[in-house]
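Give me the fold.
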Amino acid sequence: MSVSIKKYISIIICIFFSLTLYGCKYKFNKNIFIKNKPNTYYYTNLLMKDLSLEKPTELYALYMNFYKKKDFSVGDLSTFTDFFKSLNTDSFIQKPANLTNKPIYKIFLTFSKNKYIINVYNENLISIYPWDGGYSMDYIDTTKMYKAYNLYGLCKYLIPK
């Protein structure tokens, strides 16, 4: 092939790809690039939706000091649903300034399509986020919650220190 034919083919390829990429800009959802979380309970709503549609395929707690793992029973799942049903919008807070980096317990919930992690910092504070989330965690203040629904108490019962 001569040099002029190669240049001609490369120009046509460049124009073709440019036009193809130009057409894609209208197909993308512009909301996926927004960095602000829609609300303070965004991930919690997703988790509650998954809990209402199916039972988790995997549900366990991990004690972070000694990395003890304990699977939850089917009966313990009712504590989770009761916990989430008892939440209101006042329960969700911004990230506390005095938050410790390492939670005492981590709870893992795996569904067919999603996986969530619940960090239990103490009896008054937890956070929720999905395995591959793009926003900051949901922080929940549990001070006004009924003690039977407290996830810290459930973890402490299942995995004593």
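The helical segments are 3-24, 42-53, 74-85, 151-158.
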